[in-house]
Amino acid sequence: MVILTSCSFFLFYLHALPLVSNSVTGSLLQEEGQELNKWEGYVNWRNKPAMRDQHGGMLAASFVLVVEILENLAFLANASNLVLYLSKFMHYSPSSSANIVTNFMGTAFLLAVLGGFLSDAFFTTYRLYLTSAAIEFMGLLILTVQAHTPSLKPPICASASTEIQCEKVNRQKAAMLFTGLYLVALGVGGIKGSLPPHGAEQFDDTTPQGRKQRSSFFNYYVFSLSCGALIAVTFVVWIEDNKGWQWGFGVATAAILASIPVFLLGSPTYRTKIPAGSPITTMFKVLIAAVCNNCKSKSPSNAVMGMKTSPSSYTTETGEEGNATKVKVPSQTLTEDLEFLNKAVTEKTVSPMLQCTVKQVEEVKVVLKIIPVFMCTIMLNCCLAQLSTFSIQQAATMNTKIGSLKVPPASLPVFPVIFVMLIAPTYNHVVIPFARKVTKTEMGITHLQRIGTGLILSIIAMAVAAVVEMKRKKVAIESGLLNSAEPLPITFLWIALQYLFLGSADLFTLAGMMDFFFTEAPKSMRSLATSLSWVSLSMGYYFSSVLISTVNHITSIFRHTPWLSGSNLNHYHLERFYWLMCILSSLNFFHYLFWANRYKYRTESTAD
């Protein structure tokens, strides 16, 4: 009986063994498949590993594009017409109002660096957007309450022709105003520094399809910016002028509030990069280590850790340009570019805190190499600043009627906005596919070529602006209206020409910069690098103010009257200023070519 039972158990074991083996094998394969399905370095909105078949892609990025329409609507709804609110209702002088608006806009864009830094170092882009949107909402709510409540504003001012001076805003009311404005600026900075990289992170940069989709995303991101701006400079400006500023601020407040649930709707589809610590700390550590180790000694004991330098041995996580499609593991070798930094990797450092890896050194090199490209884009944004200043003033002296419709000069920014909205889809669906066929490369047009195209268009725009101003002044002289405030017998649509070229330049350069900085920067610094696009815009506005002041100072030395001074635009030498901008833009373009021709894409290093 025992023998029979033992035989039966042995036969059962032999029969069940393949089933158990198959079950274990299937379980192992399933676990391996789940591991392969995970996005390494990414989590979902619940802070769990992101899955390739569930998270990321164009659907997730689409939520970001809709959110950007609402966010830019909330920001530009007031920024585009804020100078009028400050001068008419808060009783600041025109010059003070202009400075307040310039400082507000500049601060908002500069704070994008803070948003990018926090996204890379401490917070995810997902959480930072929600926090920043809440801050912007609080700021707009404060401005809305102040605009709605008469006791929180100075008394309504009488006619400017009376001898009674308008009562200036007191400290308490001014404090409320600036609290609201700079809460908005802080929120906008956080959003600009987190939302574009959040959208770009949804694509798989290890595949050609993912990189193409990411490039399209940046094109449509600029398109979304324009959609929000179009509503802001038309519908909201009309509400502010005809229904009251409390309604204008109210629309902006509602827009940023609506963006939060829209963003949250996409939560199940997002993949979010895990913060990797402060990239700025890494940069300073490498720079300080390189300086200290170079100064310490030239002896063999401080030689690099047995690693030979190679001009093309350092590879990146992904191929980004041209035909490169394979992913290579970063090699432990140093490149010959910026060889001074190679000393940061030594056997004996001045301090253990300054111990650097090859990867850290090479990442810092990449950041330093994109800075000259960033600097070359500031001049273009200086040209763009003219669209919101002199171009509007020029149009105000001209015939602004289209048939029976009279277009207010404050709505003139609608022209570049419409141009961008028309050009962006055309570029993405016509120009890029054609360029890919001609060049037989993955990108068709490289990032640096896009930026260079934008710089060329800005040169043409300034030349066109100078010619149009010469024509406008000629009409003023011939019609005897040089000293008159009456509209000149010339249509303001001539000004639309420079808007066309500068709007096109903005599309090429802004989208190109974002894609370039995001693609080339190390993964640990992508949000910070992308925010440089907004910093360039901010510095362009500041440089415009400095340039105008410098021109007036220099020309006042050689002439009794500066080029750009006085209350009558017809007496300005604006055409000379535009020619100067054209010359400076041309010099800047040659400066750009110097760096662009020497720049080596990270993928090219991989290919070599």
Compute the number of helices: 20
N- to C-terminal distance: 76 Å
- Specify the overall morphology: globular
Structural class: mainly alpha
Query: Count the strands?
Result: 7
Mean pLDDT: 79
Low-confidence stretches: 1-29, 159-163, 301-331
Query: Which radius of gyration do the C-alpha atoms yield?
Result: 29 Å
Topology-level CATH name of the largest domain: Growth Hormone, Chain: A
The strand line-up of the biggest sheet is 2-1-3
Q: Helix coverage percent of residues?
A: 55-70%
Taken as a percent bin, the fraction of beta residues is under 5%
Text of the CATH class of the largest domain: Mainly Alpha
CATH architectural type of the largest domain: Up-down Bundle
- What is the H/E string? HEEHHHHHHHHEHHHHEEEHHEHHHHH
- Report the sheet with the most strands, covering strand number, pairing sense and barrel closure: 3 strands, antiparallel
Q: What is the domain total for the residues?
A: 2
